[in-house]
Amino acid sequence: MKELYREIEIKMKHGVDHFHDELKQLRTGRASLAILEGVTADYYGTQTPINQLANFSVVDASMIVAQPFDPTQISAIEKAIQRSSLGLNPSNDGKVVRIPIPQLTEERRREIVRRAHDMAESARNGIRQARRDGNDRLKSMEKAKEIGQDDERRGNDEMQKLHDHYINEINQTLKKKEGLIMEV
Question: CA-to-CA distance for 90 and 69, rounded, in angstroms?
């Protein structure tokens, strides 16, 4: 049964980690290199992450600068950022790409918070599914007489504790991110 607990906990932890990674890509109004993760550009016919095409740096709270390794890729990097759903409008001076991070409007902040809530609900559903899988496996083990009814009940209680722990972690992370997004 300990192996089952570990397996279910790994699934739940993976769901929480995925949620954390998704949240990194949400804009908070401050310049952060994490918002550009997942943006790809056409590099000689291959979709390549832009962080592999340029050296990115945060100049101040409202500006990111990209120094391409290959100067011929400036326009590809610029177009990739414009095509992304980040709402950024980069410009280039022939040597570097400047990516200003505009201040978020109240409406845009609320939209980003809604997306964060959707991501959190998706993560919670993953946690619930992992708990359901664990409980179903415990039930089948009990039917096969591998464990007794008391062990199944204890196992269900343990699954619930894991579930509650990871749901609480998602809720706390969402609350922090929402605070970052909504602060002016």
Answer: 17
Look up the pTM and report it.
0.71
pLDDT at 4 over 80: yes
User: How do residues 69-107 score in pLDDT, each as one tens digit?
Assistant: 988 889 899 999 888 877 788 998 888 999 988 887 888
**Which of 2, 6, 12 has its CA nearest to residue 132?**
12
Q: In sequence order, what E strands does 7-123 have?
A: 40-43, 46-49, 54-60, 63-68, 91-92, 97-100
Determine which helix (DSSP H) or strand (DSSP E) holds 141, and give its type and residue range.
Answer: helix 106-143
The end-to-end CA distance of the chain, in Å, is: 49
Q: Are 134 and 8 in contact (CB under 8 A)?
A: yes
